[in-house]
């Protein structure tokens, strides 16, 4: 229907556009279960506090369960005219139970209602994210344990640096995802305060019991300031920030898997289940899941930035801008869960190619540091001098297109006369990794100790 004052000139068009820009039901219907849980807790509290009758509360609470089953069964007709999930549910409740439905919104506003719904939704996602990270960590631990002593090149600048173990490399990601896990845990603890009963912004004159609804909804306590309770979206931002860091880790790992699965590297073979072929090149087996993880996580960073932008200019308390919080978080959550599951699947299924790893580990003068360390230890040379002597030997090997262990003792002695034959013992990659026993080093025994420790945490 058109506006009373200028309806003659404006037909239905602007109304439809207003409706389109205003409505959130297209996406906030994902919070139906949370909305109904919040309303049921609120109704029970209103009755307990003597604000509505027990029989009205009963009708409301039962009616809401009917609405929920209609929504879950796909038998609910969402209306854009009713704007959002809150009004859609309430209108349906009214149709089902009549007059008592109108008493549900006593001492409450859509402002505290939406904050409550959204918090409950984000809290579920935090739990899901923690589950996904744990599962991925378990898959990494299995890989690390199997290959605790398999050698591979360690890189800096993506240039061969020093040999490390496969287990050590896997455990580096376990450390990263372990921090992600603790960030999600931490965010969950901080966010777990109930906004319900903050009402529009100032609280309410009804004798409500916010502690009761907080407890019923699994919150630790009610939020202490009503203005803050309805205008806080920190909880969503912390979820996005922690998700962004986790996603960044997923993307780094995805990038490594793309490189490692190439014909030039052959470090890993990804399973058929997590690869795709080419419609033209018959030989192709592409790491699409890894590539899509790498690409999709950009959406999570985008959501984090978008919500910061939405919030940064808002005066207290609620502004309709805040309705723009949900789509970003929904999309980020969906993509995070998908990326975690895809990475877990790839890691579980992938085969590390032990021979390729070992062959690559020895190339590129990867034991040059071991040679320098030997000069320090055996000849009591200052490290800087040892570095210089080793550099000359590397240059010699490079000019002959051979590796350090391929040089003869005479070659070595031509650079430094005091070098003896037992230098060759440290030039092997296995000796190299086995010697790195410092705490947190790549020696297999260190790796196994870290695997055991993390199994105690997530195993
Ligand atoms: N759909 C709204 C949102 O998502 C609910 C809150 C509306 N509150 C208001 N004062 N208009 O934010």
TrEMBL record:
CDD domains: Argininosuccinate_lyase. Its EC number is 4.3.2.1. Transmembrane segments: none annotated. GO terms for biological process: L-arginine biosynthetic process via ornithine. Pfam families: ASL_C2, Lyase_1. Residues 8-302 form the Fumarate lyase N-terminal domain. InterPro entries: Arg_succ_lyase_C, Argininosuccinate_lyase, Fumarase/histidase_N, Fumarate_lyase_CS, Fumarate_lyase_fam, Fumarate_lyase_N, L-Aspartase-like. One of its GO terms (molecular function) is argininosuccinate lyase activity. It is found in: Cytoplasm. Residues 365-434 form the Argininosuccinate lyase C-terminal domain. Keywords: Amino-acid biosynthesis, Arginine biosynthesis, Cytoplasm, Lyase. Its main location: cytoplasm. SUPFAM superfamilies: L-aspartase-like. It catalyses: 2-(N(omega)-L-arginino)succinate = fumarate + L-arginine. GO terms for cellular component: cytosol. Pathway: Amino-acid biosynthesis; L-arginine biosynthesis; L-arginine from L-ornithine and carbamoyl phosphate: step 3/3. Belongs to the lyase 1 family. Argininosuccinate lyase subfamily. PANTHER family: ARGININOSUCCINATE LYASE. This is Argininosuccinate lyase. It comes from Shimia litoralis. The gene is argH.
